[in-house]
TrEMBL record:
<dbReference type="InterPro" id="IPR006140">
    <property type="entry name" value="D-isomer_DH_NAD-bd"/>
</dbReference>
<comment type="similarity">
    <text>Belongs to the D-isomer specific 2-hydroxyacid dehydrogenase family.</text>
</comment>
<feature type="domain" description="D-isomer specific 2-hydroxyacid dehydrogenase catalytic">
    <location>
        <begin position="7"/>
        <end position="322"/>
    </location>
</feature>
<dbReference type="InterPro" id="IPR050223">
    <property type="entry name" value="D-isomer_2-hydroxyacid_DH"/>
</dbReference>
<dbReference type="Pfam" id="PF00389">
    <property type="entry name" value="2-Hacid_dh"/>
</dbReference>
<protein>
    <submittedName>
        <fullName>D-glycerate dehydrogenase</fullName>
    </submittedName>
</protein>
<keyword id="KW-0520">NAD</keyword>
<keyword id="KW-0560">Oxidoreductase</keyword>
<dbReference type="GO" id="GO:0030267">
    <property type="term" value="F:glyoxylate reductase (NADPH) activity"/>
</dbReference>
<dbReference type="Pfam" id="PF02826">
    <property type="entry name" value="2-Hacid_dh_C"/>
</dbReference>
<dbReference type="GO" id="GO:0016618">
    <property type="term" value="F:hydroxypyruvate reductase [NAD(P)H] activity"/>
</dbReference>
<feature type="domain" description="D-isomer specific 2-hydroxyacid dehydrogenase NAD-binding">
    <location>
        <begin position="111"/>
        <end position="290"/>
    </location>
</feature>
<dbReference type="InterPro" id="IPR029752">
    <property type="entry name" value="D-isomer_DH_CS1"/>
</dbReference>
<dbReference type="InterPro" id="IPR036291">
    <property type="entry name" value="NAD(P)-bd_dom_sf"/>
</dbReference>
<dbReference type="GO" id="GO:0005829">
    <property type="term" value="C:cytosol"/>
</dbReference>
<dbReference type="GO" id="GO:0051287">
    <property type="term" value="F:NAD binding"/>
</dbReference>
<dbReference type="InterPro" id="IPR006139">
    <property type="entry name" value="D-isomer_2_OHA_DH_cat_dom"/>
</dbReference>
Amino acid sequence: MTSRPSILVARAVFPEVIASLREHFEVETNGSDDTWTPAQFAERLQGKAGVLTSGAERIDTALLAACPSLRIVSNLAVGYNNFDVPAMTAAGVMGTNAPDVLTETTADFGMALLLATARRLTESEHFLRAGRWNKWGLDLFAGAEVNGSTLGILGMGRIGQAIAKRAAHGFDMPVIYHNRSRLDAATEAKLNARYVSKTELLQQADHLMLVLPYSAESHHAIGADEMAQMKPTATLINLARGGIVEENALVAALRERRIAAAGLDVFEGEPKINPDLLTVPNVVLTPHIASATLKTRRAMAQLAADNLIAYLTTGQALTPVNP
Ligand code: DGY
């Protein structure tokens, strides 16, 4: 009898997903949401052919050299900035992500965060809960208009386009966007979207939504200089990765009302939060939950598992990221 491959699941994952993996593999699981240190992670990976990661585990040259049995790393996330893809390719290790199944859910959350930020939802709720509401006021928590205002999108992949669809068709918003590549004319027309330079995007957007991948190139893509170009009435929404925004510059811009407000689902040092952000009232903060509905998280986990099963049983991954 040939022995079955062993794999590692680095996070707590739904039992039915683990059960599907156990049909093919010997499975060791973390069983909790605590991230292992790189040394603990490398130790657990000894003898494993595959691993299901959450996006927090760094896959780099040192780890690959320490884990020669590894053949595939399957990220339970669409983003894979935790992968050193060239190093993985050089080591013959397949990398996969979990795209598509989260697109619509994440776009819903983008609109939710935009609305909450522009319409000051959490700020006004805190005020009410604190017992401070004693009279109706004409400008009490007056926020920024969403319908009909211009939405700027930085990064126009699947999630950016799903947000543009909601904005254009649900909220009558003209959409401007900047991206590495331009959409075709028919898609632009369908999304009421106009391609602009990054400078025009910063200057013209009433609300700026960040949905671009994180890389060395997009690190601190929105810093003090970029915020200085934005309208003082603008809001900034980050659904992508914390490192795209220079957080200290954002705190200063929010405090000095150089931009009106921000909505952040992701943070540079998450789950640790820059303490200064917690002192600013005009920011809505959520714990990286843009794709978090049970249906979507189950689908993401199953896709991550199916990538392991497909690659280790047939040699073909479903959603590879290696070129
Ligand atoms: C993703 O899928 O990349 C989300 O940000 C969850 O990590």
